[in-house]
Amino acid sequence: MSIASHSPRRGNALWAALRRNRLSWLGLALFAIIVFAAVFAPWIAPYDPLQQNILHRLQPPSADYLLGTDTYGRDVLSRLIHGARVSLVVGFVAILIAMIVGSAIGILSGFIGGAFDRIVMSVLDVMLSFPTLLLGLMIAAMLGASFQNLIIAIAITEMAPFARVARAPTISLKQRDFIEAGRAMGFSDSRLMGRHILPNMASEVVVVGSMWMASAIRTEAALSFIGLGVPPPTATWGGMIREGFDNILDSWWLAVFPSLAILLTVLALNILGDALRDAIDPKTRVE
């Protein structure tokens, strides 16, 4: 018999953490605005993000173009709003894949133990020895620049931390009495891992996921900046920064506004991750 779920209690803890840390409300509001803009981009954006108007190229922020125009006369605000879709989808899907695959590897490694565990941990140590951006760059360069390959590259780079986080509680949980009772009742290893160990460590993985999504968005922007992300003319924040890099002194708005969008998104996710950690981890709670 597994440990009972405490989802109402955890919900109360999360609410209490949000009330204690007022900064978390800022993160929640920022992230909600960004998600809203991404979901309703076709209706919110004032112009078509791909529409070119050479006569209005490199226009500074004005009443007609609130954030100015780029070198092709495209509206920066419209491209910024549509770029949020790419960043959020890539970040969420890549982290979801990394969370599922990495957690499965970590649980399996911790549960089986022995030589299998040592081999898996050695492979993960090699992956963790590479900086995230460098590993993502190598994988993206091998796969080629596309939306799907970008997600795969980021998912692989973020897989090792989830495996590490899932492995540690698995080693502790498999020694608990309810796991031994399950073995005595004839439960299979897959049932013990999937129905008894996974639910008791899922919250820790979710907290890590909320924080590493910010890392995934940064990696997506960096890969797009160097040309290994979503190919143009699709609007991406990293691609917009790259387009404005050559004109940074004369047309500052081209790089500054997408940089601010990345900064605010990463900040919001980190603040929300801290709130989740405070709610779930009893060691960090302040009564």
UniProtKB/TrEMBL annotation:
Its main location: membrane. GO terms for biological process: peptide transport; protein transport; transmembrane transport. The chain crosses the membrane at residues 23-45, 86-112, 119-141, 147-166, 252-273. Keywords: Cell membrane, Membrane, Peptide transport, Protein transport, Transmembrane, Transmembrane helix, Transport. It is found in: Cell membrane. Belongs to the binding-protein-dependent transport system permease family. This is Peptide/nickel transport system permease protein.
